[in-house]
Amino acid sequence: MPSISASSPVSPNLALLDLSERADGPPLIAVWGSEKADSEFQLGTRETGWHQHLRGQIFCIENGLVHVRTRRGSWLLPPHRAGWVPPGLPHMASISGVMSGWNVLVAPQAARSLPKEPCVVGVSELMRALVRRAVAWSGQDVLTPAQRRLSAVLLDELRGAPHEPLHLPMPSDRRLLRIAHAVLQAPGDARTLDAWAAWAGLSPRSLTRLCQAELGMSFAQWRQQAGLVHALESLARGESVARVSDALGYATPSNFIAMFRRAFGESPARYFAQRAGAPRAAQMPAEPPGAP
């Protein structure tokens, strides 16, 4: 996510670019980031062009929002959640108001047992503590046996972490893609499946079949997912629940809040308040002497 291709309008972060392209070295390289221009993992508010890395990336932010796009869809990374981008996957990112966070670069061989597709997962206290340890090793070419064991535990934590419903798959079929783009442009459009099918020159049965084949879910599920993505982006920008509810076509804000709670287990206010006040394990206190 953080390094940038040569075609991007933003200057590349050479320090992270070099680390993310390392074929040798330790299985995990962890770096701490901030909005400062000389940070190894530069954040702030910016956009990257399409790019990819030799190493996979596990990254987490403490504030703001990151929107990552791939050829097959997009997903959002809110604060105190971890995003995973597999090695060699082309992607681009929009970074909004992110002041601090961390990034763990995973060697291709170490990433073989990790998810093959990008995802957003929960971050446990153990994962936070392991990342703090790993940042202290970032200058080492060879890890000690104890550090290798801790690296393996960190990868186990990622494998077992619960996935969050923040991914929005995109189709390749041109007719379904036309519908998807129209829904994203106007997420409150209340047209039925039959109406959307007729608009795109499809039968309702064909649209239903295409959604399952290309999106892995029903049209109604995909449209709700698109609404959640829109809601998270809008709420992160400071828009009110009432305004977001209206944009998504809900009759009342309480109906929108109920949908949000079903998806995330809590109300929008609590969702963002908890993430704003989540433990800031990331102030990177010094590790005690002799820590592995």
Task: Give a description of the structure.
GO terms for molecular function: DNA-binding transcription factor activity; sequence-specific DNA binding. Residues 174-274 form the HTH araC/xylS-type domain. InterPro entries: Homeodomain-like_sf (IPR009057), HTH_AraC (IPR018060), RmlC_Cupin_sf (IPR011051). Keywords: DNA-binding, Repressor, Transcription, Transcription regulation. The chain is an alpha+beta fold and 292 residues long. The chain has two domains: 14-166, Jelly Rolls; 170-249, Arc Repressor Mutant, subunit A. Helices cover 38% and strands 19% of the residues. The strands form two sheets. It has a six-stranded mixed β-sheet with strand order 2-1-9-4-7-10. Strands 3-8-5-6-11 form a five-stranded antiparallel β-sheet, with helices on one face. Strand 5 and strand 6 (73-77) form a beta hairpin. Helix 2 runs antiparallel to helix 3, helix 4 (174-185) packs across helix 5 (193-200) and helix 8 (241-247) packs across helix 9. The chain is globular. The two termini are 28 Å apart. 35% of the residues are buried.
Briefly say what this structure is.
One of its GO terms (molecular function) is DNA-binding transcription factor activity. With 292 residues, the chain is α+β, with helices and mostly antiparallel strands.
